[in-house]
Amino acid sequence: MIDYLHGQVVHYESDYIVMDVQHIGYRVFCPNPFVFAKSENSVTVYIHYNVREDAILLYGFATREEQKLFRKLIEVTGIGPRVALGILAGGTPDQVVAAIYQENITFLTKLPGIGKKTAQRIILDLKDKLDGIAVMPVLVPVEGEHDLFNPIFSGWKEAREGLKALGYTDGELDKVWHSLKDGIAPEESVDSVMKKALRMLYAG
């Protein structure tokens, strides 16, 4: 079983990256591929190795915490790898774990692919099973509280990291955020936010 890969990202799309590891290209599906933007530097990607009857798939994460949380999420009935990736694209491990502990259904239902019943199932199944995930304790307020805890702002923070890795400056990104923030829906993924920002940046 593959636990992690260390190599160079040679290509990325909206849902996966291609890593060159000793001249072998691995396709790895990620919550936010733009975090591993094409670079001359090698990166470490933590892997979940998934074997199906018709395919062998690799899912990759920037941290051990993301990897562990992904594995917990796919243990929940009705949540497959794609939905689990969407959850991690829409919220940081700290936020998702905090929401589960706080039984914050409002926050969880803003994540991609999560309805009220699924949010309740996540809380029921995982609330007592997350001790092994070392995340910072955070407060996840309900809708309408400070923007820093809003899924929209959190999604932009992750998208911003990916855009900075592509070479955009803080000034350019602040300008884009000012124009972009009112047009982002709470359920949008980081990937969707990043695509919107890139269109604005390309347009100048």
UniProtKB/TrEMBL annotation:
<keyword id="KW-0963">Cytoplasm</keyword>
<dbReference type="GO" id="GO:0003678">
    <property type="term" value="F:DNA helicase activity"/>
</dbReference>
<feature type="domain" description="Helix-hairpin-helix DNA-binding motif class 1">
    <location>
        <begin position="106"/>
        <end position="125"/>
    </location>
</feature>
<feature type="region of interest" description="Domain III">
    <location>
        <begin position="156"/>
        <end position="204"/>
    </location>
</feature>
<dbReference type="InterPro" id="IPR003583">
    <property type="entry name" value="Hlx-hairpin-Hlx_DNA-bd_motif"/>
</dbReference>
<keyword id="KW-0547">Nucleotide-binding</keyword>
<dbReference type="Pfam" id="PF07499">
    <property type="entry name" value="RuvA_C"/>
</dbReference>
<keyword id="KW-0234">DNA repair</keyword>
<keyword id="KW-0238">DNA-binding</keyword>
<comment type="similarity">
    <text>Belongs to the RuvA family.</text>
</comment>
<keyword id="KW-0378">Hydrolase</keyword>
<dbReference type="Pfam" id="PF14520">
    <property type="entry name" value="HHH_5"/>
</dbReference>
<dbReference type="InterPro" id="IPR011114">
    <property type="entry name" value="RuvA_C"/>
</dbReference>
<keyword id="KW-0347">Helicase</keyword>
<dbReference type="GO" id="GO:0016787">
    <property type="term" value="F:hydrolase activity"/>
</dbReference>
<comment type="subunit">
    <text>Homotetramer. Forms an RuvA(8)-RuvB(12)-Holliday junction (HJ) complex. HJ DNA is sandwiched between 2 RuvA tetramers; dsDNA enters through RuvA and exits via RuvB. An RuvB hexamer assembles on each DNA strand where it exits the tetramer. Each RuvB hexamer is contacted by two RuvA subunits (via domain III) on 2 adjacent RuvB subunits; this complex drives branch migration. In the full resolvosome a probable DNA-RuvA(4)-RuvB(12)-RuvC(2) complex forms which resolves the HJ.</text>
</comment>
<keyword id="KW-0227">DNA damage</keyword>
<protein>
    <recommendedName>
        <fullName>Holliday junction branch migration complex subunit RuvA</fullName>
    </recommendedName>
</protein>
<feature type="domain" description="Helix-hairpin-helix DNA-binding motif class 1">
    <location>
        <begin position="71"/>
        <end position="90"/>
    </location>
</feature>
<keyword id="KW-0067">ATP-binding</keyword>
<dbReference type="InterPro" id="IPR036267">
    <property type="entry name" value="RuvA_C_sf"/>
</dbReference>
<dbReference type="Pfam" id="PF01330">
    <property type="entry name" value="RuvA_N"/>
</dbReference>
<comment type="function">
    <text>The RuvA-RuvB-RuvC complex processes Holliday junction (HJ) DNA during genetic recombination and DNA repair, while the RuvA-RuvB complex plays an important role in the rescue of blocked DNA replication forks via replication fork reversal (RFR). RuvA specifically binds to HJ cruciform DNA, conferring on it an open structure. The RuvB hexamer acts as an ATP-dependent pump, pulling dsDNA into and through the RuvAB complex. HJ branch migration allows RuvC to scan DNA until it finds its consensus sequence, where it cleaves and resolves the cruciform DNA.</text>
</comment>
<keyword id="KW-0233">DNA recombination</keyword>
<dbReference type="InterPro" id="IPR000085">
    <property type="entry name" value="RuvA"/>
</dbReference>
<dbReference type="InterPro" id="IPR012340">
    <property type="entry name" value="NA-bd_OB-fold"/>
</dbReference>
<dbReference type="InterPro" id="IPR013849">
    <property type="entry name" value="DNA_helicase_Holl-junc_RuvA_I"/>
</dbReference>
<dbReference type="InterPro" id="IPR010994">
    <property type="entry name" value="RuvA_2-like"/>
</dbReference>
